[in-house]
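A note from the maintainers: we've had questions about how concatenated examples are separated. There is no special marker in the raw files; a new sequence line simply starts the next protein. For clarity in this README we add a label.
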Amino acid sequence: MKEKLVVLGGGSFGTVLANMIACNDFPVTLWMRDSENAQLCEATGFNERYLPGYALSDQLIISDDLGDSVRDAEIVIFAVPSGSLTALVKEVVGSICSDIVVISTSKGVYGDDFLLPSQILQQSLPGARIGVLSGPNLAKEIALREITATVVASGDHEICEMLQTVLASNYFRVYANYDRLGVELAGALKNIYAIVSGIAEALKAGQNTKSVVLTRSLAEMSRFGLQLGADPMTFLGLSGVGDLFVTCTSPLSRNFQVGLGLGQGKTLAQSISDVGQVAEGVNTTRLVKRKADEMDIYMPIVSALYETLFNDQSIKQSLETMMSAEQNTDVDFMVKKND
């Protein structure tokens, strides 16, 4: 297989994805919107803006020409923040073939319709074959060749095999999952709980408390996912508990850093400004709270965080609200044995 691939998005994750593909000897173009940075990366062999010191393969083509990059491509990977996805898709619609393989790495939800990134792609590119890539994938660690695993999710088995072939290496594993909905929901939802974990870290919470945050967050994620039609078992995999753990414990997580700022007494605006990049969990909290209320899904952590983020409720009061919430079963999906 030597299909032409293109990765759209010259940030840290797009860069490592494209570079891994190039290192596996597949023809790939990394498109960047910033012409100056594209020229600098091409000239120096480094994307110093996002991944200082990370050497780029000589086989990696870097371009700022969107139309030329996607023309004749057979696999297009959208590696941009969810807030940039819709506009970018509109830009490429007229330049790609109808039956192209399209992969989303975005993690978030959209507006009143509660659409996921792959659903945005499907609406705009109705003939495309869709997949998503998600998991505990901190780009800076991948760049250091730390052992990492990800999930490619699609109902199209061939797409999963394609991504496994072009990305897998001795430090990067790619596992298949056919529950695209569950994988995408997990990737979006975990950002909410990373904010909560950052708050807990700032408050110097003990290990007992942190374990409560992680496990009850996982319970909420799987409960929410089941009601929307996902397989709850998906949340026990890399895209669920794996990504949740990394995002809730790593200082490299933008959403964790927002929570850390809130826990230190900063305003939401100050916390976001300090991070300097998009923290998807803030808007996701708003949209998930609305959806949970509409569907009557029990989400006490989401509800408490929402009040702190958007209604100026103190963190202390939010904690008190969570601790006074209903004490229900530990695991929602246990198989009941016969008496």
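[label: protein 2]
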Amino acid sequence: MDIMKTAVLILPGVLDISLGITLDVMNTANRLCQLAARPALFDVTLTGTGRRRERSGSGLEVGPLARMSDLPAPDLVLLPGANRATRGELEDWLSTRDVLKAMERVGGWLEGGAAVGASCVSTFALAQVGLLDGRMATTSWWLAPWFRERFPRVDLDMARMVVSDGPVSTAGAALAQADLMLALVARHGSEELARNCARFLMLDHRVSQSRYAIASHLARQTPTLQRADRWLQTRLGEPVTLAMLADALHMTPRTLSRHFASAVGMSPIQYVQKLRVERATQLLETGHASIESVAAQVGYADPSMLRKLLRRERGVTPRGVRPRAGRAATGE
């Protein structure tokens, strides 16, 4: 393993928890390398576009920062997330001179052979200057519909927690930065080193962010999705078909399917399944009904279908969802 000259880019409003986990994973990896009598993996420099210090999203000062223009070309460039949660806040942040200037420099480093890792809204910064065009990438789940609309040349994958395409790796929101960092440790160090970092920092291995997405929040993206969500929420215990939903919204099934695909990246039936899993999870967490009863309440006569969806969407079994006290009451 060769030491990686690593530039951590500190932009205005950098997300504190994202920056912290970035530095903690690298520090842990370096300590573990030293304990094994091997050279450190990361040579870390905090960098920015010019100011000596930058304010984080919670108002803390981060620094001292080296100027990007003064740095030798790094081997690895890391972009933690930023504390910009709404579309308006994000649009303002993306249009700032700091972000645009920084992405110009990152593009040059990428062209020169550097690897790049970004999470949360920093993926938007890469995408707006074309650095993700033609690549697979991911981003914060609640911003995915806007990302698809704004950057159609990016192949957005919202199923995985971390997506690597060539030298560029992207991840979801906030603590997905931990998953990104462990993936980079595995890629540039070793799988064993990444596993040991995860153990020392008590980080779980997570491969998908779909379990964290809230379907009804995604539905707020368009009036059509809002109407669909309202109609479905009152019929989760009933049989629902694409034709029935399309008829209720006065659309053809084909048009409705296209609308769902472009807005939230899933089919109407996949959306129904996500709603049912969310309702079932709530029922299992807060009540004592059997899995058979819960399955029936969310439209599945066969509880094995609900078990399958829980494993796929949440990575758990019904027993894993229910609080410990509830398991004893239901005999699970």
